[in-house]
Amino acid sequence: MDSAALLNRVDELPRLPKAISELLDAVNDDNATVKSIATKVAHDPLISARVLRLANCAHYGRSREVGTIDEAVVRLGMQTLRTLVLASAVIGAVPKCEGIDLALFWGQTFEIALYSQEMAKRCGAMPEEAFTCGILHRIGDLLIAAVSPEDAAKIAEAVAQGKDKHEFERELLGYDSPDIGALLAKNWKFTTALVEGILYQDHPKDSDPFSKLAALLCLSYKVLDEWDTIEDDEKTSWLSQLATKKGLRMEMGGLRTKLTELRGSGFEIGRALA
C-alpha cells in the first residue's frame, strides 16, 4: 500500500457529527435507561425514522406495529439498538454516491453483518463486534465513489471484466477499499480488532494476531454467494470445511437452520434504512 497516497485522503473522510457521537456514547453506556436512550434517539429525526422502520421490519418486528421510539427501544433491546444506531450513523455520515444502488449496497452489507454475528456466537468472537465490523467492512467502496466517482467507475468496469477488485484498486489508487475503510474505522475510534477485521477481510490469515472478524467476513461472503448452490444435507459439512480453511473453530449445531432463516433479512433491513 502507498501510505502517502492513502494519508493524503484523510481529510476527505467523513466525520461523525457531534450529535451522533453523543448518541453512540449514550447507547454504549451500560448504565443508561431505556427512557434516556429513547429521549436521545428521538432528538434525531432521521435516526428516529430509521429505528422505527427497523423495529417494524420482519426481521425485528412482531405482529403489532410500533409507533413510538419508546416502544421501538423496548422491542429491539439495548444490544440491537446499539448496532442499529451505529448503522444509522454510518449511513448518514457517508454521502450518497453516483452509480451505487444504496438499498442493494446496504442490503448486502447487512446480510454479511447478520451472518457474521450468528457465526461469531459459535467461534468465540464477540457477536456485536462482528455485526459492527460487517456494517463497516465495505465503507471504503462508498468513500472511493464519493471522493472519486471516475475511479469508482473504472474499478467497476475492471471487476466486470473479471479483474481482481482490490488488486486493481491498488494499481489505480495506491491503496484498496479495505485500507481506506480501516482508516475510517480507526479515525472513528473503533477497536483495533475491528480495524484489523476490515483491513484483512480478504486475507484473514495474513493478520498477526489472527483476526477472527476478518475470517468471519470472508466466510460470510461464501455463504452469501454459494449457500443456495449447496444441497441441504451437505451444507453443514461444506460450512465446517470452509470455517476450518479460514482458521475458525466453529460449533456447527443448528447453524445451517439459523443461516437459512437469516437469508434475505439483511436485504430487507437495507431497504428499510437506505
TrEMBL record:
Instruction: Name the InterPro entries for this protein.
Output: HDOD (IPR013976), RNase_Y/CdgJ (IPR052340)
Which ranges of the sequence are coiled-coil?
none
Recorded hits in Pfam families, A to Z, give: HDOD
Q: Which residues form the HDOD domain?
A: 13-204
Write down the superkingdom of origin: Bacteria
**What's the protein here called?**
HDOD domain-containing protein
